[in-house]
Amino acid sequence: MTALYATYCIIDSDGRVPEGITGLHGGVVWNLPYRGIGVVVSLLAGPVQDIVAGAVQHEAVVEQLMWTHTVLPMRFPTVFVSQEAILGMMSQRYDGFRENLGRLCHQVEFGIRVLWPVANCPAAQFRVQVPHESSGKQYMRERYRQYQCRQVLSEQADQFGRKLDAVLSEFVTAKRLRKTGAGAFAFDGVYLVDWDKGAAFRRAFAEARSCEPDFEYLLSGPWPPYSFVAG
Questions:
Q1: Domain map (residue ranges) of the chain
Q2: 101/105 Cα distance (integer angstroms)
C-alpha cells in the first residue's frame, strides 16, 4: 500500500520541529518546508480506523507545537498521497497562510462558557408539562409563560454577557461571541489573547467570576487559535 501523509498544521518556520512528538499511528512528526514556513506531517501506513482517538492525537500534535511556533491547525483528517501534493497545496494557499501566521503570531485562544444558576436554568423553567386533558386555553397560557421565560432569560444573558465581555475585552486581540438566548449557557465565547496578556486575562476572569458567584464558570485554554484562522 502506498504511504499517505497526515498533515497537522502550518507553522511559521522552515526548520525542524522539537523531537519526540508522535503523530497518528505512532508516526514520527516532521516539518516539510516551503518558502520560509512549513507544514507538519507524518507518514500513515493506512486509513485511521479509530476516528476519536485519531482526532485526539491530531490535536495533541498541534497543541505541543503551539509552545514553540505560531500554528495554523489543519482539520482532522487532512491526508495527502505525496509530498508533491502537499507542496502544491502550500503554493496555492501560501499568501493566506502567511497572512494568518503574521496576524496570529504570539496569540492563543481561550474559551469561556458560563452556565445559569440552578434556580434559573432554562431546563427548570421549561420542564412544566401541560396535562393532555387541559383545555386549549390552559395550553396557550403555558406556551405564553414559556415564551416570556425565554424572553427574560435571553435579556438576562445579554446583560450578563455584555458585562463580562467588557471586563475581558481590555486584554484581547479579537473575540467571537455566540448568541446564547435561553439556552444552557448564559455566556459562550472565545477570545484571542497575546501570550504576554494571558495572566492578566485570567485575573480579570477570576475577578468577574467572584462578582457573580452564583453562576458556574468554565474556562479552557490556552489553545492554538482554532477559531481565528481565516479562510
A1: 4-105, 108-228
A2: 6
Instruction: Report whether 228 contacts 109 (CB < 8 A).
Output: yes
Label residue 227 exposed, middle or buried (CB < 10 Å: 0-12, 13-18, 19+): middle
CA 42 – CA 26 distance, rounded (Å): 9
For residues 161 and 79, which has the higher predicted lDDT (pLDDT)? Answer: 79
In degrees and rounded to multiples of 5, residue 206 shows phi and psi of -60, -40
- Overall CATH class of domain 108-228: alpha beta
Residue with cell 476572569: 205
C-alpha cell of residue 96: 493566506
Question: C-alpha cell of 190?
Answer: 472565545
C-alpha cell at 205: 476572569
Extended strands (E) in 35-99: 37-44, 71-80
pLDDT digits (tens, 9 = 90+) for 71-99: 999 999 999 999 999 999 999 999 999 99
C-alpha cell at 8: 497537522
